[in-house]
């Protein structure tokens, strides 16, 4: 059997219609979706299939929706005896990875990320926080520019995601992000793109949510993982459930070190890196780190079958 690393997308990869084809094709997916509706107490699947987009994009809906699709696909692959030897996820996607690694039951994970989304929404006043993607600027130059903005304007602005070479996401107060757009272009950034998000995620402005989230994490029956998971906060492998819990709390206000994680995955000599879930964002990041990397994206029936055929044919 081929050695596979599964990677799971985070918030921003959601889209209306996500998971519907799988729901209609596979009875086991329908069962998982209905169990999720029952656990959450509302029809998440209807929001996923029909929208409206603004409602699906709300953090408390987008996060469980993405985890649900990723988990359903993982279960379909498991039935074909296709499992990862390593796993990770981008931000929210780390929870899908932990479900795949059997550290947490998917129903518990759904409820936890729903609460996580609500806490993230309420941690900072709506409309006063922002994020932006910075393209084509070295980390050192970017950090110097952010430090100047912090010292001159007394605003919070920090690195939120280190995604791949030439792509870094910043997060902070809206005023600071607005100031950064011009300053970073002056420093040499090719583009600075404001992101459509509801708050300053992965910055110190999320710390007010951490204590409440820690209490929620403590309520879950966690187990050690069955396979290593690369943690967003450290970019290192983790298997111990107590360490995982602490890192998930820290993840709320810490940078996502995804470029480092990809580099480590590529050193593990896996036969392919497989993005499991809606969208193709992470596949693109992997290719920017190493364009020769073997990658698959599994988000619908044809792409699911493509991976199954490849594993069986080559395995």
TrEMBL record:
The keyword Transferase applies. Residues 132-159 form a coiled coil. Belongs to the fabD family. SMART domains: PKS_AT (SM00827). Keywords: Acyltransferase, Coiled coil, Transferase. One of its GO terms (cellular component) is cytosol. The keyword Ribosomal protein does not apply. The lineage of its organism: Bacteria, Bacillati, Bacillota, Bacilli, Bacillales. Residues 7-306 form the Malonyl-CoA:ACP transacylase (MAT) domain. Pfam families: Acyl_transf_1. GO terms for biological process: fatty acid biosynthetic process. The active site is at residues 91, 202. Gene3D superfamilies: Malonyl-CoA ACP transacylase, ACP-binding, Malonyl-Coenzyme A Acyl Carrier Protein, domain 2. It comes from Gracilibacillus dipsosauri. This is Malonyl CoA-acyl carrier protein transacylase. Its EC number is 2.3.1.39. It comes from the Bacteria. One of its GO terms (molecular function) is [acyl-carrier-protein] S-malonyltransferase activity.
């Amino acid at each position: 059997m081929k050695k596979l690393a599964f990677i799971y997308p985070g918030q921003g990869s959601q889209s209306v219609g996500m998971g519907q084809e799988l729901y209609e094709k596979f009875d086991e997916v329908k069962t998982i979706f209905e169990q999720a509706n029952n656990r959450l107490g509302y029809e998440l699947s209807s929001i996923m299939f029909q929208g409206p987009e603004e409602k699906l994009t709300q953090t408390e809906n987008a996060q469980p929706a993405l985890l649900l699709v990723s988990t359903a696909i993982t279960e379909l692959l498991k039935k074909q005896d296709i499992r990862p030897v390593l796993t990770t996820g981008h931000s929210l996607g780390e929870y899908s990875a932990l479900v795949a690694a059997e550290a947490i039951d998917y129903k518990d994970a759904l409820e936890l990320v729903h609460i996580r989304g609500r806490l993230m929404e309420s941690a900072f006043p709506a409309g006063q926080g922002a994020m932006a993607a910075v393209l084509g600027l070295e980390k050192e130059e970017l950090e110097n520019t952010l430090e100047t903005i912090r010292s001159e304007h007394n605003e919070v602005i920090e690195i939120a995601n280190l995604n791949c070479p030439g792509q870094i996401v910043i997060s902070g107060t809206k005023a600071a992000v607005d100031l950064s757009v011009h300053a970073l272009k002056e420093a040499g950034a090719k583009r600075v793109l404001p992101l459509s998000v509801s708050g300053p995620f992965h910055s110190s402005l999320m710390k007010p949510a951490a204590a409440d989230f820690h209490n929620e994490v403590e309520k879950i029956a966690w187990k050690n993982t069955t396979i290593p998971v690369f943690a967003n906060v450290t970019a290192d492998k983790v298997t111990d459930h107590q360490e995982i819990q602490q890192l998930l709390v820290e993840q709320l206000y810490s940078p996502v070190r995804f470029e480092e994680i990809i580099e480590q995955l590529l050193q593990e000599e896996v036969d392919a890196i497989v993005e499991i879930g809606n969208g193709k964002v992470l596949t693109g990041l992997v290719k920017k780190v190493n364009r020769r990397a073997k990658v698959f994206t599994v988000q619908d029936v044809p792409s699911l079958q493509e991976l199954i055929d490849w594993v069986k044919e080559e395995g």
